[in-house]
């Protein structure tokens, strides 16, 4: 067989397995056992697959590159997700191009247009905070370019999605605050139209209800996900007699704690604080911050694998949501001594 004709489907046929299994094996996915990986890699090398990835992509009308569009590259979550994506796409023969929207809708549209001009094989996207219309994404799919959404997603665009268990993460955080004796729990959240903040709000509300606490809408503060947003709302939160704050992001928690300190309000003795994201600063600030770990690296690997599956096996382009589990990391900001 001539090497320039080799595709993942050819390797799959040779071995009697599915193309998606071949793709995962070539990407060193933990979802494929070592024996199968070895067999696939040996067969791919024998058949000359790696030497012809670029030529194969060019014949399909794409460049052999994958584009990723994210709100902010300087966030720990997104940089970890990119690392996970690279772990999968590079061994599979793809290059990664990165575009940052800075939360702006127009820049997201421009990023899509730029990647289309560069004939990328597919795009992995996390929606900008400003984005409420999705014609640019539907147009992308109409042109046959594979799209996988991750973290911030919309059901108005078809295709695979990879998200955190945002509801459960918020539920665990608020349950922890209730179990440590808190009842007036404020919530600093982000843009309400984004799925991640909508689900965290839902988890917050459900945890209160399940523990016999009537949710108070006055304690919910939208568009307060930044450090400045966290600090700005502390005066109002304290006027409402809150004894704890659940923040939908660690930067809001950082701002909240700094402002509480400025007001000589002790954390956690007078007000407990819990964040979300487990940013690197959360374990070294004083007090150290209780937060929800999102497992961004795993989210990146799952999103990348879903995209490669779409590119190499078009029948795999169906609506499917992969939910990544989260965990609560308890630190000093929410632990009040009972002695």
UniProtKB/TrEMBL annotation:
Coiled coil: none annotated. PROSITE patterns: HTH_LACI_2. InterPro entries: HTH_LacI (IPR000843), LacI/GalR-like_sensor (IPR046335), Lambda_DNA-bd_dom_sf (IPR010982), Peripla_BP_I (IPR028082). CDD domains: HTH_LacI, PBP1_LacI_sugar_binding-like. PANTHER family: HTH-TYPE TRANSCRIPTIONAL REGULATOR GALS, LACI-RELATED TRANSCRIPTIONAL REPRESSOR. It holds the Pfam family LacI. Keywords: DNA-binding, Transcription, Transcription regulation. Residues 6-60 form the HTH lacI-type domain. This is LacI family transcriptional regulator.
């Amino acid at each position: 067989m001539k090497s320039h004709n080799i595709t993942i489907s050819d390797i799959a046929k040779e071995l009697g397995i599915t193309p998606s299994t071949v793709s995962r094996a070539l990407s060193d996915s933990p979802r494929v056992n070592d024996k199968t990986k070895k067999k696939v890699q040996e067969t791919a090398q024998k058949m000359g697959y790696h030497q012809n990835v670029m030529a194969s992509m060019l014949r399909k009308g794409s460049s052999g590159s994958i584009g990723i569009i994210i709100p902010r590259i300087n966030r720990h979550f997104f940089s970890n997700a990119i690392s996970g994506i690279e772990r999968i796409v590079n061994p599979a023969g793809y290059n990664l191009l990165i575009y940052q929207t800075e939360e702006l809708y127009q820049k997201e549209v421009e990023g899509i247009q730029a990647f289309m001009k560069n004939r990328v094989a597919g795009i992995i996207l996390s929606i900008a905070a400003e984005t409420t219309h999705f014609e640019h994404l539907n147009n992308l799919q109409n042109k046959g370019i594979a799209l996988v959404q991750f973290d911030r997603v919309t059901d108005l665009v078809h295709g695979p999605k990879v998200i955190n268990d945002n509801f459960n993460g918020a539920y665990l955080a608020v349950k922890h605050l209730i179990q440590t004796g808190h009842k007036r729990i404020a919530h600093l959240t982000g843009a309400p139209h984004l799925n991640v903040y909508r689900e965290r709000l839902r988890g917050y509300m459900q945890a209160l209800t399940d523990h016999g606490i009537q949710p108070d809408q006055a304690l919910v503060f939208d568009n307060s996900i930044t450090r400045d947003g966290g600090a700005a709302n502390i005066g109002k939160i304290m006027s409402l007699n809150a004894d704890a704050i659940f923040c939908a992001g660690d930067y809001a928690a950082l701002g909240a704690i700094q402002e509480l300190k400025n007001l000589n309000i002790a954390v956690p003795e007078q007000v407990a604080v819990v964040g979300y994201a487990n940013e690197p600063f959360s374990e070294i600030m004083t007090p150290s911050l209780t937060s929800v770990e999102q497992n961004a690296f795993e989210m990146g690997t799952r999103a990348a694998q879903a995209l490669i599956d779409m590119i190499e096996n078009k029948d795999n382009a169906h609506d499917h949501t992969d939910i990544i589990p989260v965990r609560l990391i308890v630190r000093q900001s929410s632990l009040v001594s009972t002695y």
